[in-house]
Amino acid sequence: QVQLVESGGGLVQAGGSLRLSCAASGRTFSSYTMGWFRQAAGKEREFIARISWSGVSTYYADSVKGRFTISRDNAKNTVYLQMNSLKPEDTAVYYCAGQYYSATVYDWWGQGTQVTVSS
Asked: What integer is the mean pLDDT of 29-57?
């Protein structure tokens, strides 16, 4: 079992930046893919980014490409999401998730952290 805890959310003005962190415990962190998702009020959960176990491979949703960067530090059991040029439409609860058993299903989820971008 893996426990994931997000932090770093908050209120920021449009154009600003935030860095989210997700600390993992349990199974060996370096053995699984990590992803970030978000869910805005009244909307479905949206994939944001993922990073391979080694950190070599990353993939982004078009909505954040060029503005957000996912990274990981396996020595610290932590994955990050650097968010730049934030827009009001980025307002959502952000979740990190771990993927191990399947390439299409995320097995573990954090509790989420709120990001609010004011215009």
From this structure: 95
